[in-house]
Amino acid sequence: MAPESATREVTTPGDVNVSLTLSLLRRGGADPTFRRVGLVVWRTSRMESGPVTYAIEQLGPRHVRATAWGPGRHELLDGLESLVGARDDSTGFVPSHPVLADGVRRYPGLRVPRTGRVLEALIPAIIEQKVLGIDAFAAQRRLLVRFGEAAPGPAPDEMRVFPTAEQWAAVPSWEWHLAGVDPSRARAAQAAARLAPQLERLAERSGDDHAAVHRGLRSIPGVGVWTSAEVGSRALGDADAVPFGDYHVAKDVGVALLGRPIDDDELAEVLEPWRGHRYRVVRLVGLSPLVRTERRGPRMARVDHRRI
């Protein structure tokens, strides 16, 4: 018997580029919660009502269809507009720099997604703290393969569903070690898992009051501005969530908008005219083919925490 599915189509008020918008949710090329098959984006998630696999197709610039399987399918489809960024309001954003104006023209359907799933964004962000992306993505994959469950429905091979908060909180210390996550990040991730119900309720109650959610996130030991911003731009649809402290963002934005690298203090000044849309600026700069920054010089060292 074929697994039960549900389908929903939505027409958005403005253009939406589903593939580009949802690419923000992918944690490395081998992320077992994300696949792109042709023009279809496949992803898994853990809703309050249970696990879900969904496939999203772009039928037109403003027309999206999603099919979902699993206990969380109806809840996922109810939030489809937010997920694909259709409720991301860019009113007031003025791309007053040539790089930004080019980005708006080049990526007309780029939006900030809002998954509503705080823990799904928070634990990967914690794992990515102060390590190279390639190592963080590998660690996340090991943990998802070890503790995640098989994706419901006709998902592509080897897709997995994000574990429950209780499962994350119960991961033994040696499993974090074997995955390549050091004790400080493991402790922060487990603290976040234990607080997951409160965080999810806070995000739901707060609506567009992102500041309240960021305060709650930053109250967790080991969660700072960068980690909170990484959650904001994915789970909350926060177009103003600047990842201060990122290894490349200040330099890239400085080169793009001023022609020279800058630090975080100057980054705050440079982005101030776009307050409310500062992450939108960061995202456009990151995607722009017009921006070329030197990757020479000191780099973060690779550390295999499995060997420590």
TrEMBL record:
Biological processes, Gene Ontology terms: base-excision repair, AP site formation; DNA alkylation repair
GO cellular component term, pick one:
cytoplasm
Query: Which UniProt key words apply to this protein?
Result: DNA damage, DNA repair
Checking SUPFAM superfamilies in the record gives: DNA-glycosylase
Matching InterPro entries, A to Z?
Alkylbase_DNA_Glycosylase/TA (IPR051912), DNA_glycosylase (IPR011257)
Query: In terms of domain of life, where is this protein from?
Result: Bacteria
Task: Using the record for this protein, list the coiled-coil segments as residue ranges, or answer none.
Answer: none
Picking any one GO molecular function of the record gives: DNA-7-methylguanine glycosylase activity
Q: Which PANTHER family match?
A: DNA GLYCOSYLASE, DNA-3-METHYLADENINE GLYCOSYLASE
Protein's recorded name: DNA-3-methyladenine glycosylase 2 family protein
* Organism of provenance: Aeromicrobium endophyticum
